[in-house]
Amino acid sequence: MSIAQEIVSSALASGTQTLDEGQSKRLLAEYGIPVNPEKEAASEDEAAAAAREIGYPVVVKACGPELVHKSEHGLVHVHLPGEREVRSAYRAAVNAAGPAMRCALIQPMISGRREFMAGMFRDPQFGPVVMFGLGGIYTEALADIALRLAPLDPEDARAMLHEISSSTLLGPFRGEQPVREEALISALTGISRLAIDFPHIQEIDINPLLAAKTGEPTAVDALTVLGPEPETESRPSPIKPSAIAPLFSPSSVAFVGASGTLGKWGHMLPANVISGGFQGKIFLVNPKGGELFGRPAYPSLSEIPEPVDLVVVTIPAAKVQDLIPEMVHKQVKAMVLVSSGFSETGPQGSAMEKELVRKARDAGIAILGPNTMGLCNPHAKFHCTGTVVHPIPGATAMVSQSGNMGVQLLSYAVQQGIGMRAFCGSGNEGLLTMEDFLQAFAQDPMTKTVMLYVESIKDGRRFAKNMKRLAGKKPVILLKGGESQAGNKAAASHTGALSSDIRVFDAVCRQSGVRKVDGPMDLLHLAAAFSSLPLPRGNRVVIITLGGGWGVITADLCARYGLHIPELSTGLCRDIDQLLPEYWSRSNPIDLVGEWDMHMPIHILESVLQWEECDAVINLGIMGRKNFLKRYLDAVSAVDPAMSRDLLDRAYTEVADFETSYTQALGRLMSEYDKPVFGVRLEQEEGDKAVIDVPDSPYKAVFYETPENAVKVCAEMYSYYKYLHSGTPTE
Fold first, then answer.
1. What are the pLDDT digits (tens) for 437-449?
2. Do domains 1-33+112-233 and 541-724 have the same CATH topology?
3. Which of 48, 73, 279, 287 is the most buried (most CB within 10 A)?
4. Class of 541-724 per CATH?
C-alpha cells in the first residue's frame, strides 16, 4: 500500500473527514507536488530539537484536522530566530488551539513575495475540477483563478498559469527569479492524478503555494477534505448517431394530432412541412378521420397503410404513452414530441416523462423532446418547426435548448445568408440529449460548423468529452443561458434541470476549444465566418480602410483583442505606391484616401495577401458605397434637370457591378492565398446579408456592420486555430 493509500484509508476508517496540514502534505508529496520539509513535534522539547535540526529561522504551526485559517487565529508563528522563541511559540499554539491540536509543525522559513494557490474540488455535474490562482490574503477578495477538468494534461496546466489576471507575477518580480513553470505544471497535473485516483477526496486546498526568490514553488500550507465516494447518478444512456438520422432525413412522416384549426401545433407543423417542399410521404392522423390539407386523415397511426419513418406528436401529454405500442407495430424508430406537460411542469410531469422514455428506450424509439419547437433539414426540404423559416442548405448545424431562441436564431441565419446543415430544438431532452447531438455532429461529414444554445446539461463529463472531440474537428460556437441567478432559475423552470456553476462551465469550454460568446448576434457573426472563411494562421492583421479615422479605431480594437498590426515592409509600400497618390500614409492601416478607382482596392488587397507578414485582412468601407451613391444621385436628379438620367443610372450600375466583382475577387484571392478577409460595410442596407456566396470558390465573402464585429471574429478564429495546433485537442 502506498503512503497516499495508507493516509486516505486510515482517515476513512477512523471517520475523519479532514486531513490536517501534515497529512495533506505527505499525500501531495507522493504525487510530485513540492512541499516544504517539516517535522512534527508533540512537545515543547521536540519542537526545540526539530528547530535545531532544520536550522533557524523557522516557522511553528499548530496542526490538527479541525484547524483551518490558522493565521487568522494566531496558530502560525514565523521568522523565529532561536530556541527561546520556538518554545514560546509552541506554548502559544497549544493555548490557542487547545485539544484540537494534534501536533506542532516545525518548518524552515521560506521567503518570497509571490503567493499562489492550487487545489481541487468536485463539481456535481463535471466531477473533479483543478484550480490555480492568486493565493494568500487576496484569494477570496480577488477570486483570480483558472479552472480545468481532471484529468489534466500539461498543456491544460500551462494554459491555466497564463489565464489568471495576475500571471505577470510568474515572471521576474522585484529582484526575484521567474517562477519555475514546469514545477507548477507538475503540481497541477499531480493534483489531477490524485483526484482521479482517490474518488473519496472531495477537496484539496494548497494556499499559499509560495514562490521563493529562486522561483521554486512550495506548498506552504495544505488541507484535504474527504467524503463518501460520489454516487454514480443515473445518467441518460448514449444514443447512437445512426438512431438520430431518421429524425432529420425521413422518407415518410406522420403527424399525430393533425388539426384543421389555425394556430394549433397540429396545423402549423404540417403546413410548414408541406409548404417547404418536402418530397417524402406525409400522413395526417386525427381520431375524427376525414380530410385535412386536401389529404386523407387517418383515425390512428396503425391505420396508415404504408411504412412510417418519423412520427411528429402534438397530442396531450397523458396520451403519448399509448402511441408506443402503435409505433412498435409500425416499426417507427423516431418521434418528434412537441407536446408539453412533462418534466418542465413539476414532479408529476417528470414521472410521466421518465416512464415514457423508459418505454421508448425499450422499444428502440428515439425521442426528440418533449416540449420541442421541432427541427429542420434544408438539404431534404424538411422544415418541421412551429414558425415558417426555411434556411438555405449549408454546413452549419444548430441545437437550441430553447425553442423560441432557436427559431429566432434560425430566422437571423436566413437574414444573414448562413446556410444550415440542420436545426433542432432539443426541448426537455427526455431521451435525446445535447451530448448525443455533439457526438452525431462529430461524425456527420456534412456538418462543418456547430452552433449551440445551452441552458443546462444532463451529463457533465460526457458533455465535456464530446465537446472536446467535436471542437477538435469542427468549430463549435456556444451561447449559454442561465448564467445569472435570475437566468439560472428561469432555465431550471424551463428545462427541468439545474445549471452548473458558470465558472466551471466556462472552464469546460476553454478546455474543449469551444468558442463561447456573449450574445445571439455574436453566435451568428462567428458562424458566418467559420462557415465561409479560412482560419487565420497568425495574429498579424492588415487594415484597408476608405477613411483614416475608421482605420485608427479598428487598430485600437485589434490591440484590445490581442491582434497585431505589423508595420508595412518597404517592398509592399513600393507596390502600393503604384496604386495610391504619393501622399498616402505608407502605414498600416492602409488609408485609401477616398479614392474611387473601382479596381484599385482589389489590386491592393492582392498585394497585401501576398505579403508573408500578413495573416488576415480587415477591409473597411469598400462595400456599401452604392448606398451612399444612390442617395447622391437621387439628390442630383431632383435638383439638376439638365443631368442625364441615363448617366446617373450608369454611374450607379458601375458601382453595383464593382461590388459584385469585388466579392468574386475575395473568393478567388482567399482561395489562392488561404488567408481570411473580413469585410465591414460602409453602410448596411435592408436586405444586405453578412454572407455572400462566391461561385466556384470554397470560400464566401463576409461583411459585418461594425469594425468591432470583424475584429472580435478574427480574434476568435485565430484563438481556435491556436487550439487546433496546441497539441492533441482530439482524444
1. 999 999 999 999 9
2. no
3. 48
4. alpha beta
